[in-house]
Amino acid sequence: MFITFEGIEGAGKTTQIRYVADYLTAEGHQCMITKEPGGSAIGRRIRAILLDPANRDIHPLTELLLYAADRNQHIQEMIRPALSQGKSVICDRFHDSTVVYQGYARKLDTGLIHELNRQVMADLIPDMTFILDLEPKIGLQRAWQEVNQGTRTDRETRFESEDLSFHQRIRAGYLELARQDPARFIVIDSAQDEDTVKKEILQALTDRLAALEQ
Ligand code: TYD
After folding, report:
1. pTM of this prediction?
2. How far apart are CA 83 and CA 159, in angstroms?
């Protein structure tokens, strides 16, 4: 099973992914938690370029190609091997991030984005995708709090530094994707407290698992 998590900065993906992995492990699944960008060794080097705030000059197309390069390496080296060993893979961001950040927010050619994703992913589509939905103002506050508390490194703040309207386009982009494909997406209101968010995610997960097994 391949599960992806999406959402704006500060929506709490990392915490909730851990809960899902704990739940699946307790149910007897072997799990691999991973993320983009930076799920492979080569990907970690690409991530450093992408998220360094000093790299203000990255051309939008260069950015898109680096995310695609990271994803290709990640799928080939990590995701496909894990899935073929029967593991469940839970990924913090995947191709929908490119559609939303580079497409909806940076306004790059969506045809090119879909073609790159198609080449890189082939038949690998997530079985389910959780969107942790949140007002960008709250998400950015949370993300900056992490930066200031030192739990997120200040070398990785290139996206947090974008203005509010950028993040509003991202939120709207995710909700639009969910509207287009309700069979894959599950939208969770992440303004709620952590425990309620966790319960809603695990409920949706068990419902979907039951449906997949039928
Ligand atoms: P990260 O520190 O992992 O952020 P978060 O904790 O919010 O997931 O940084 C990943 C950043 O990269 C995030 O701002 C979204 C962006 N991104 C893209 O723009 N396109 C993509 O395809 C992916 C995977 C991420």
Report:
1. 0.93
2. 30
For residue 162, pLDDT over 80 is answered with no
pLDDT in tens, 31-81: 999 999 999 999 999 999 999 989 989 999 999 999 999 999 999 999 999
Give the domain ranges of the chain.
Answer: 2-209
Pocket of ligand 1 (CB under 6 A): 9, 13, 35-37, 51, 67, 92-93, 97-98, 101-102, 156, 159
Look at strands 128-133 and 31-35 and give their pairing. Answer: unpaired
CA of 137 to the centre of ligand 1 (A): 17
- Give 152's Cβ-side CA count (13 Å radius): 19
CATH H-level, domain 2-209: superfamily:
P-loop containing nucleotide triphosphate hydrolases (3.40.50.300)
Separation of CA 28 and ligand 1 centre (Å) = 30
137-160 burial, b for 16+ CB within 10 Å, e for fewer? eebbebbbebeeeeebeeebbbbb
141: Cβ contacts below 8 Å, ≥ 6 apart = 10
Hey, what are 49's tokens? 């370029």
